[in-house]
Amino acid sequence: MPIWNLHGNGRTVEPGKVVAPDERLNWGATIAVGVQHVIAMFGATFLVPVLTGFPVSTTLLFSGVGTLLFLVITRNKLPSYLGSSFAFIAPVTAATASQGMGSALAGIAAVGILLAAVGFIVQFAGMGWIDRLMPPVVAGAIVALIGFNLAPVAWTNFEQQPLTATITLVAVVLFSVLFRGFLGRISIFLGVLVGYVVAAIAGEIDYSAVDEAAWIGLPEFRVADFASPGTWSVIAMFLPVVLVLVAENVGHVRGVAAMTTRSVNRQTGRALIADGAATTLAGMFGGSGTTTYGENIGVMAATRVYSTAAYWVAGATAILLSLSPKIGALFNSIPPGVLGGVTTALYGLIGIIGIKIWVDNRVDFSRPVNQYTGAVALVIAIAGFTMQWGDFQLGAIVIGAAAALLIYHLGNAIARWRRTGADDGGPIPAVGAMGGDPQ
């Protein structure tokens, strides 16, 4: 059982101080903070199984178990909650439609295994090789294409109940700008609540499954199918997700390090191993793939409590919630209009995260190599390109990711050999505070 030092008087956090990962407040306050982490992650975590058709209770179970596993592997030094990763939605949706849920689960498990392998390499060799393989223009393109590839799915739900969908979308945007702090960070969850109430008033919700579900019971487990011939073509669609999970985990570790102590950065390799192990476990038995959660970073920043004790509470709470089939059935009752409204914003936000990587790293889009790396990848994703050889099929995500990597690295090699100036010359100079010319 992990041991934490009591912070101060155990009740308050002094101005300018934080509760470090190896500290805790009194158990009453720690439990309260832990439950707050569950609320923060809930809105995003339940949406992934609802959108992909996976059992909500099973996803909650492996989310909680994965969080506890993460804390063990990182030796209780890195505060983090593992919730459902949106990066899996597109490949899971495509894989389930073509080969079934068993093959989709095999794809999730394969991502977890590869992510853990990357973690072991990072633990011993550092992060430099990832930066060389996936520079900002490539990383941004791959993250963005995963979100934009889902645009047709959002429209399919939206058009079924357009009024409910519009109200839900407006609520999500409104809450994000109306509230500050914690409420602003859970605007998606609040928007879903508004849309759900509107749908209930309009009689658009079927509660029959909720009425039939038991209050207490084990989640529904499914087993990954590695035996079906089509599974291996499905797994190829999942591989680009590894790059997204690497970026998310590295960003999480650096964020916690910036707010606590730089020594946290030494846990980067272990964080990748831990998320890989949690994702593999979830994929093998019917849960959604996991990742570290930005929503919980927001809770830590607001409370200044970075204690891993709170995450043990959060993981245990998620496991308890997963043991109620009625809760899972209630979330599965969310109608298409609500899903269409929230995913119009959500999928677009995934794409914008990729574009933000470009902006943050000042990618120079006057260079042809950078232009075509982003342009070709995004068009492939939005149009939904596919390639097929017999039973083996490649979807838009893997084609777009491969195109981004190939155009960037091969294009750079040719441009530098020919000295045409078309290669990536690095970040553009920062402009002045008033937007003037570079100094």
TrEMBL record:
Protein name: NCS2 family nucleobase:cation symporter-2
Membrane topology, record value: Multi-pass membrane protein
InterPro entries linked: NCS2 (IPR006043), Xan_ur_permease (IPR006042)
Annotated localization: Cell membrane
TM region(s), chain numbering: 54-73, 80-98, 104-125, 137-155, 161-179, 186-210, 230-247, 309-331, 337-357, 369-386, 392-410
Family stated for the protein in its record: Belongs to the nucleobase:cation symporter-2 (NCS2) (TC 2.A.40) family.
Entry keyword set: Cell membrane, Membrane, Transmembrane, Transmembrane helix, Transport
Gene Ontology MF annotations: xanthine transmembrane transporter activity
Location, primary (coarse class): membrane
One Gene Ontology cellular component annotation held by this UniProt entry: plasma membrane
Source organism per UniProt: Microbacterium thalassium
